[in-house]
Amino acid sequence: MNWDFALLLFILLVLTGAISLLEWGFLRPRRRRRAEAQMAVYDANPTGIGSVEAARLRREAYEQAHRVPGWIEFCVGFFPIILAVFLVRSFLVEPFRIPSGSMLPTLQSGDLILVNKFQYGIRLPVVDKKIIDLGEPKRGDVVVFRYPVDPKVDYIKRVVGLPGDEVLYQGKKLFINGQEVPQQRDGDYYEPDQSVYVSQYTEELGEKPNDILYSRRVAQDYMPITNYPFRDQCEYFTAGIRCKVPEGHYFMMGDNRDNSLDSRYWGFVPDRNIVGRAFFIWMNFGSPSRIGGFN
C-alpha cells in the first residue's frame, strides 16, 4: 500500500513539475508577449472615450490576455507542496500505522509511528535502490520492511538475527550464536486480540532492553508457510527452529512471540526490502498518552 502511494506521489510530482516548468519557461512568456501585443493594438486605436474609462478598458484587456488557466494555476501552486512531502517522505521520515498486535507490548494496533528513512542509507524513491550506505540495522532495532512474500505489503518487526548469526528459538527461549538472550519476568499483560492475560518479560536483545510477551502454557509448533529463499538454512523441529542468517539478510521477530507471523514462518528479510527504523509514536487516537519514543 505504501509502495503504491509512493508511486502515486512520484507521478503527481512529475506531472505538476512538468506543468510548472512549461508554465515558467513557455506559457507565461507567451502570455506576456500576447498581452503586450494586445496593448500595442489598443494604443494604436484610441477609443475616443475619457482617460479613466480608457485606462480601465486597457487594464481589463491586458488582464484577459495575461490570465492563467485555473488548472495550470492549481498545478503550479501544488507543486512545491508535493515536492516537500516527497522529499521528506523519501529521504527523512515516513509515517506508518500499526495494523495488528504482533508487536505488543511495544506497539499497539492503531499506533501512528514515524520511521527514520536515512539511518540505514539513502535509497532512490520508488525503486528503493540504495545509493549511499550510512549504516546497517542493529540487533534489537524495530524495523519497517517490505514483506518478502508480498513486497507491496509493509511489515514491522524487531531485528533478531544479523547476517551470519545462528538463531535458535526453542521452548520460548531465544539463542543467538549459542548464547541465550537474557529475560526477566515483568508481570502480566492483557492481550486484547486474544482477550487473555499473558506473561510479560524484559529481554536484553540489543543495546537497550525491550519488552516481549509469551505464555509458557501455550504450545507452539513452527512450520514454513512458503518455500522461501535460503530455506535450506533453517531447520524445523518440535517447538523450535534453528536458522543460519545469510549475508545481506535479517531474521525478524515480533515482540508478541506467540502471536506474530515473522521470520520463523516465512524466512529472511533481504536488505533491499528494509524501509527504515521505527522510532516514535506520533499519535494513537484511542490512547493519546502513548505519544513518544520507544525501544
UniProtKB/TrEMBL annotation:
UniProt KW Transmembrane keyword: yes
Catalytic activity entry: Cleavage of hydrophobic, N-terminal signal or leader sequences from secreted and periplasmic proteins
Protein name, UniProt field: Signal peptidase I
Keyword Endoplasmic reticulum carried by entry: no
Keywords per UniProt: Hydrolase, Membrane, Protease, Transmembrane, Transmembrane helix
One Pfam family hit: Peptidase_S26
Major subcellular site: membrane
Family membership: Belongs to the peptidase S26 family.
InterPro entries tied to this protein: LexA/Signal_pep-like_sf, Pept_S26A_signal_pept_1, Pept_S26A_signal_pept_1_CS, Pept_S26A_signal_pept_1_Lys-AS, Pept_S26A_signal_pept_1_Ser-AS, Peptidase_S26
EC id: 3.4.21.89
Limits of the Peptidase S26 domain: 72-283
Organism name: Mesopusillimonas faecipullorum
One of the record's GO molecular function terms: signal peptidase activity
Chain segments annotated as transmembrane: 6-27, 68-92
